[in-house]
Design a protein that fits this description.
20% strand, seven-stranded mixed sheet, alpha+beta, 11 helices, binds phenylalanine, single chain, three-stranded antiparallel sheet, 338 residues
Length: 338
């Protein structure tokens, strides 16, 4: 009797200290296993006098049942704890801080270039890429600006060496295309141009988009229609355009083109400097001499050309008055036009 009580007490005390499923399994083997202490007690029953056997047998069995139940309870508890532990330690913390990766955006200048390109391509123009480093011939002479002609002063050109320069206008692309492709032709030539000019509205590197249409019976009206469509597309359907007489050596007649102010509708505001109009490009009918220089008969073909400043249109659209903002790469500025 004493023995069974002691074994029960020891077993339950020991159970109370067990912390893992592994320890519990060892304990069960040591106590309830084939040669475990309680099993051995059962086996010793045969040495108990026959009249005591039922009583002692019941005591031993009670101990076995109590310890087994305690083991089962603990087993369940430890198993649950093990699962909880695994859930916690395996979990991925989806709230963890990580470096912020910011989303990029198309630069406002490129947005404008792309939009204009889409418009003209949609109207049948091809996109022509012309070199940034150019010869004097393509940038000037073929465009009816001979050496020593005062019209060269209209553009303060960067010369690289004698006869080689950074193109000061995309008009050079007109000549290069007309030399290669016979009319009818419709092209735009967007790209970087360079002039020794530097203030809040001028940058030594800026962007133009040239337009050229050459065909039979092309008139100034065609130019006006083409530019009106373009102006409405960019600045809205209510936009009007006006031509002012101007001078470019490579067009005759030449015009400067204004659009009615998209902001005030022509009443006068800060954007249009109270004039109601915004100047956006230069244009004209391709000068006969330029057509001749490119081997095109001006009595058979006529053309119109225009050149617009992409930076200027971008500035108007973004509402900024310093061209440097387009170059500073200040992400706070760029983000505004994402
Ligand atoms: N190339 C001229 C400039 O840069 C613009 C222009 C292009 C004018 C085509 C007429 C025709 O000022």
């Amino acid at each position: 009797m004493e023995n069974t009580e002691k074994i029960k007490e020891e077993a339950l005390n020991k159970l109370a200290t067990i912390k893992t499923e592994r320890e519990l399994a060892d304990f069960k083997t040591a106590v309830l296993g084939r040669s475990g202490t309680i099993t051995m007690l059962m086996k010793g029953l045969k040495d108990v006098p026959p009249e005591d056997r039922p009583r002692v047998g019941k005591e031993i069995n009670d101990v076995r049942v109590a310890v087994t139940e305690a083991c089962d309870g603990l087993e369940k508890k430890l198993h649950r704890q093990a699962i909880e532990h695994a859930l916690i330690s395996d979990a991925i913390d989806v709230t963890i801080d990580k470096p912020v990766r910011s989303v990029g955006a198309v630069h406002p200048l490129n947005q404008v270039r792309k939009r204009l390109t889409d418009y003209f391509v949609g109207n049948g123009y091809i996109v022509y890429d012309s070199p940034e480093i150019e010869t004097d011939y393509y940038n000037f002479q073929a465009l009816n600006i001979p050496l020593d002609h005062p019209a060269r002063d209209m553009q303060d050109t960067f010369f690289i060496e004698d006869g080689i320069l950074l193109r000061s206008q995309t008009s050079s692309g007109q000549v290069r295309l007309m030399e290669k492709v016979k009319p009818p032709l419709k092209m735009i030539c967007p790209g970087r141009v360079f002039r020794n000019d530097d203030d809040s509205t001028h940058s030594p590197v800026f962007h133009q988009m040239e337009g050229l249409v050459v065909d039979k019976n092309v008139t100034l009206c065609d130019l006006k229609g083409a530019l009106e469509g373009f102006a409405k597309f960019i600045f809205g359907d209510q936009t009007k355009i006006r031509f002012r007489p101007s001078y470019f050596p490579f067009t005759e007649p030449s015009v400067e083109v204004d659009v009615s102010c998209f902001k005030c509708g022509g009443k006068g505001c800060r954007v249009c400097k109270n004039t109601g109009w915004i100047e956006i490009l230069g244009a004209g009918m391709v000068n006969r001499k330029v057509l001749e220089n490119c081997g095109i008969d001006p009595d058979e073909y006529q053309g119109f050309a225009f050149g617009l400043g992409l930076d200027r249109i971008t500035m108007i659209q973004c509402g900024i008055d310093d061209i440097k903002m387009l170059w500073e790469n200040d992400v706070r500025f760029l983000r505004m036009f994402r």
